[in-house]
Amino acid sequence: MTSNDKTLDKKSAAPRPAALLWAIVGGSLATVASAFLAWTWTSAFPGNLTIYGNPAPLQLLTLVGGLLTGLHALSALGVKGLGWLTPAGTRKALWILALGTFATTAFTTISIVVELGAVVDLEPGAGVAVLVSAVSAVAAYLLPDDTRKAAPAKALPSWAEILVIVAVFAVGLFVVTFGIDTDDSEPQLFIAYLILVGFSATALVKSGLTQRLSGITARNRQVTITAAIVMAIAFPFIQQSGDTYTLIAVNILIFATVALGLNIVVGLAGLLDLGYVAFLGVGAYTAALVSGATSSAFNVHFPFWAAALTGMAASLVFGVVIGAPTLRLRGDYLAIVTLGFGEIFRIAMGNLDGTSGPKITNGPNGIPNIPQLEFFGYNFGESHTVLGVELGAYANYYLLMILIMLLVVVVFARAGNSRIGRAWVAIREDETAATAMGINGFRVKLVAFALGAALAGLAGTVQAHVNTTVVPENYVFAGPVPPNSAFLLAAVILGGMGTISGPIVGSALLFLIPAKLSFLQDYQLLGFGIALILLMRFRPEGLIANKRARLEFHENDDQVAVPEQRQSEDADAGTAKAGA
Question: Which of 233, 286, 358, 514 places its Cα 20 to 30 Å from the Cα of 247?
């Protein structure tokens, strides 16, 4: 037998792509059907997976994963109307989706065994779900690679693009709400949710669909911004359990707002600040002292707008005072100085108790009983009925933080796209070359430091009223509960430096995960460190990177970017232009 004959035999023996795709379709349908079976016989496992025909939330995750896998497989088979799902190829997206569905299902099954203590506690439905999802994963792995350069998409009518944007944001609101609203007594559900969302998001990127959607949003920026604002405002109105989970959303917004301020310092100007949380504390303490708290050393009660401006001004002054003598340092030396400032602030607030120093902050006891905000007669600490929906206190603060975040986003975008923003980027890339071109590096860095500090102080004024107390322990360098300097810096790097959406996504993940997985409190920092190591290894540019970062770390991959992606590189509110 000749070598050519052997090659033909091997090719004929290899599975054909069509057969593998139909195997994936069959496995996906079976996975969807398995979600309607009972997975355990007892309701002792959280979520009650004992009912036939009525999937529990954990089973719904497997069902969604099976649906997404099946739709992508049908797209690969050329089913009319589904080709838009995979403009850059199907194999990678299918493999990731099928693997994610299998991982979600296997995690749920293992959790049942661990929680209940024996394999016999499983019903046949769990075994069927694991088996059929594994079939899809194996078949997807065997598919030949069909990654390709995506062809330009047909231009949709403007009304169709608007509908696409609305649908995308509606799905996004549902996904985010599902994650925030997961019951804290069911950590298995949140972990399975993270697994499926992580794999699904990666698959959408690999398929090229996210780049195509980016092109649509870039062509309809006003509609996109409006949809994003409406989605954010709608969150408290769809909460069925009142303020239970709205408080988490408020803290995420505070965390994200501070991270955006730090992004000016780190992402645009390239200054490594390890004590940034101190500026949040300056704003919070200032607001507590001037807002009429019973334990305040000053017998004053400013209205909110005055307290907010005072907090911003105090943080800005501290930023200038700390930055003026230290910003001539670079790199590690600057990082050490800022780390020292953060620790000095925390210790100083603990010593201003009337014994070790003047009685201003009540020392370790902090400033309690901070009154609720009242703005033009609207008390934020009381429930109010808006559009027929009763909004609790945290919903009021949530809507206030939406307005503040919009303000911070506008400031960040305008500053990043301005002349001084381009100077920040020049300093970040090569300070010596920028100075040689006539840029006053010290002044430019001082402006970045002061502006970032002022934005953090603004967020601190709201945080003080939300928590109704301010204590020094809230403003440490590192700890299991964000925000702290380490988590803030990680949120910027994790999300993507120099962008707007990156730090917001990073902040949401870094706050939501510890809040939902409180039972792992002793191991949170360990998991946090492992996650950062993996991120730096596989995606050093962050989850949402601008064009410059993507070119630096994945220069070859940029050659296959779809045209819509190239159009949208500068669509991140002008910040990508400053970074290019």
Answer: 286
For residue 244, count CB atoms less than 10 angstroms from its CB and return exposed for 0-12, middle for 13-18, buried for 19 or more. Answer: middle
- Report the distance separating Cα 65 and Cα 28, nearest Å: 8
pLDDT reported for residue 150: 60
Q: What's phi and psi for 555, nearest 5 deg?
A: -60, -40
How far separated are the first and last CA of the chain, in Å rounded?
A: 59
Between the alpha carbon of residue 127 and those of residues 79, 82, 227, the distances in Å are 31, 31, 42
141: nearest Cα among 300, 15, 269, 275:
15
Q: Which residues contact 228 (CB under 8 A, 6 or more apart)?
A: 169
Q: How many residues does the chain have?
A: 580
Q: Residue 39 in 3-state DSSP?
A: coil
Rg of the chain on CA atoms, in Å: 26
Identify the pLDDT of residue 15. Answer: 54
63-83 exposure pattern, b = at least 16 Cβ within 10 A, e = fewer: bbbbbbbbbbbbbbeeeeeee
Please give the backbone phi and psi of residue 458, each rounded to the nearest 5 degrees, phi first.
Answer: -60, -45
Q: What is the pLDDT of residue 562?
A: 40
User: What is the predicted pLDDT for the residue at 551?
Assistant: 67
pLDDT at 129: 93
Tokens representing 116 are 């209940």
Q: Identify the segments of the chain with pLDDT beneath 50.
A: 1, 3-14, 558-580
Contacts for 73 with CB less than 8 Å, ≥ 6 apart = 21, 24, 25, 28, 90, 94, 136, 140
Strands (DSSP E) found in 310-446: 374-375, 378-379, 384-386, 389-391
The number of C-alpha atoms within 13 Å of 254 and in the hemisphere containing its C-beta is 29
| Token pair belonging to 103 | 């991982």
> Tokens in use for 232?
């954010």
What's the DSSP call for residue 330? -
Cα(518)–Cα(8) distance, rounded to whole angstroms?
Answer: 57
pLDDT of residue 181: 84
**Measured distance CA(265)–CA(272) in Å, rounded:** 7
What is the DSSP secondary-structure string of 147-213?
Answer: --PPPPPPPPPHHHHHHHHHHHHHHHHHHHHHHHTS-TT-HHHHHHHHHHHHHHHHHHHHHTHHHHH
Please count the other Cβ atoms lying within 10 Å of the Cβ belonging to residue 391: 21
Helix (H, G, I), strand (E, B) or coil at 327: coil
Burial pattern 89-126, b for ≥16 Cβ within 10 A else e, equals bbbbbbbbbbbbbbbbbbbbbebbbeebeeeebbbebb
**CA 524/CA 528 separation, integer angstroms:** 6
Nearest Cα neighbor of 498 from 211, 262, 229 is 262
d(CA 536, CA 531): 9
The beta strand positions in 328-424, using DSSP E, are 374-375, 378-379, 384-386, 389-391
User: Helix or strand or coil: residue 122?
Assistant: strand
Helix (H, G, I), strand (E, B) or coil at 35: coil
